[in-house]
Amino acid sequence: MFLRIIIALCAVSIAHASPSLEWSKENRVMQVKDLLQQKSYDQAASDFSDREIMDAAWDLITEDNIAVDLVSLSSKSKFNLEEMIRVHAIEAWYNRPLPRFNEVTANLLLEIRAGTLSRRAQYLMLNHKDDLFKYYGDEIYMALEEKGRFDLFDYNRAKEAQNISKEQARALFWNAPDATDVLDGKYADGIRLYMFCRSDRNYPCMMVMKDKWGMPVEENGKIWTQPAMAASSRGIPYNITNGNTPAGVHLINAVMPEANRQDAFGKFRRIILNFVPASENEDLTKALLHESAHDLPFWRQANVARDVGRDLLRIHGTGRINGDPTSAHYPFRKTSGCVSKREGTYPEATYIDQRKMLDTMMGALDLEPEYSNETNIKGIFTIVDLNDEKAAVSAE
User: Which residues contact 142 (CB under 8 A, 6 or more apart)?
Assistant: First the structure.
């Protein structure tokens, strides 16, 4: 019964996702991980969805280096095609036999030719083509290319690198359209947070902010800025689970109920990010961007990541120290796909950037910087890849 309730909740528009739902989703991931480590595959299959189980298995295998028997797991859980593609991607990476191979490949061909293969399945096959092609072969990938159900314009455009001019960057910040008629006007009086990055995410990005009245947030007579990191600890791209934080438009929907798991996320509550819901021609996303950006590729990353099934993106600090002062991102820590802030004591300074940003956000919303008001933080967050320069983005 609880599983059905959660699935129903997840069907609610992600633009209106609540902290309690996000809390439940995070907790369920941890519960599945515990069951998988205990090899309680039957219970996992009984209590959790295919995607929840495979998300947990993916994290354990690729992030934590913990073995999971995907042959047994995929059999007991009777994974659907989408999750079997992910199982195959991992097994192919390790050059192991692919479980349920004949069944899966036959069904893939049937669905591709019938035009019923989901967008997510199609994107997953393309994401992991380098590993899967040697198993799936020409027949499946040629069929996907010839008879694929969905237009791949967004998927392919998102992969293009295109430098953003100073004029385009200024237009994004200064000329953001009014959001009164978008998403029921929920974000019309929210903050506008921008983060400008390099396409090489080994280098820190830079944030700037506008308040609820559309004015630049200032600090000590200058525009407020704060550096941030948006890089995958595994060095993988935005369209793969735990990859770089995808560029594009995200929605800020308050903070998590408490600052738990402080070793990973730091001492302060993490900010909830959700994707803009899908719409025809991505008109919802475009309505939140200045028209000069509509033909730029960067913002399509978030839409592809959404359709691939990425989730649980946050802005958070860390309880861990970067012990390598020679790293290009020192003193930041990379993450499993979230935006990270500097935190902790280093020889040169003690950082509490998440705390400072939460307080600045509340001030920009005309709220007292109090713990109880953190749950009222909301806004639109736009991440922009400027160019491929090998340097941190500076305030200047």
Answer: none
